[in-house]
Each structure stands twice: as C-alpha cells, then as structure tokens.
Amino acid sequence: MPQPSYVIQPLTKEYIDVTLQLCDASMGNGYLSKDFLCSCLNNPKVFFYILLNPADNDVIGYSYNEVYNASEFWRQVKPFFPSEQHFQLPDGVCCKVATLGIKMDYRGQALAKTLLDYVMDSISRSTHIDFFVGTAWKQDDYVPIASTLDKIGFVPICILHRPWHDVAACCSYCKKKRCICDAALYIKSC
Question: In whole angstroms, what is the distance from residue 83 CA to residue 157 CA?
Fold first, then answer.
C-alpha cells in the first residue's frame, strides 16, 4: 500500500493546542507549555515544524529546533558532560534539534527521518548553520531514535548525565517527576 503524502509546515497558532497534546504524550506532561509554543511563533531563532495528515488535518509529528552560537550551546550542556571529555567542541553556529515526536499510531513509517530531513534542509537554506546537534533520550543502553539519527548522518559524541533532571515535567520514559534519564549527544556537520 503506498504511503500517504503528509504536509510539513511551520507551527501556527491554530495548531498550538493539538501540538501541545502531542508534546505531552511524546516528551512528558509539562515539558513544553502553551506559552512556550506561542513564543516560538515569532522567534527568528526557533524553527518549530509540524507534520500533518491531510486526510483529517491532524498533527501527527513535530520538531522543535533552535539556533545558537555554539559557545552558548556548549555552556548549557557542559555541566552534563562526562568527567573525561575526549572530543573537540566545534565553534560557529549550531542548530539544536531540541525535541521531536511522532504520534504513536504513525511510528515505524520513517516519518521522523522524513520530518528531520525536511527541517534540516529548510533551516540550512534559510540560516547559516555550521552543524546540528541533538540530545536523545537514553534508556540503559538503548537510544530510541538512534537509527534515525544514524541514517541522517548524525554521530554520537558522548552521554550526558541527567540533562532534564531540573525540568518540572513528568518524563514519558522514566515516569519520574524529575527525569532521571541520560541523553546521547549527537552532532552532524553541514
């Protein structure tokens, strides 16, 4: 059966509530707020895209991305680095793939890869980016999105220790109010 065509577009006000519901289901209740999503609409450093099923106009995926001066990004994640860092941190401008979610009924169709390919291409064409970075949930030795990131050309560089512990949200993976999950840090050069 042929895969239906989906629509990828920037987040708009009309899709805030349904996108927030998907964010809560994917990341954990309270990870992102409605106010935060509204602030993304007019922020030139934020690229928040949604994936729509045109058959019912339902949001079935999203990707929140933010452009940083690399030194600012490294300063934010450095407290979570392993004690022995054995890699060179690149300089320049980076785009952090901050969150990505696909509705449960649509997983397994390579939609995360389709969405990320589109988003990264769109961002690269509109803004100077030297590299992309992404933090991905790590459960024991398993990173759920690892194969997708590998196919797109991301490379894991280290494990971050509990980077979401201070976020007041109930994690969808560990189910803790203060997330105890680690993260794999990935990088992709442009």
Answer: 14
pLDDT digits (tens, 9 = 90+) for 118-169: 999 999 999 999 999 999 988 888 898 999 999 999 999 988 888 887 776 7
- Give the burial string for 143-163 (b: 16+ CB within 10 Å, else e): bebeebbeebebebbbebbeb
Nearest to 106 by CA among 61, 168, 157, 151: 61
Nearest Cα to 48, choosing from 104, 99, 117?
99
Q: For residues 20 and 62, what is the distance between their CA atoms, to the nearest angstrom?
A: 10
pLDDT at residue 84 in the model: 66
Domain assignments of the chain as residue spans, ordered by start? 7-189
Report the distance separating Cα 40 and Cα 11, nearest Å. 8
Reply yes or no on domain 7-189 having CATH 2.30.30.240: no
| Per-residue pLDDT at 159 | 87
Whether residue 2 has pLDDT greater than 60: no
What is the token pair recorded at 74?
């490294």
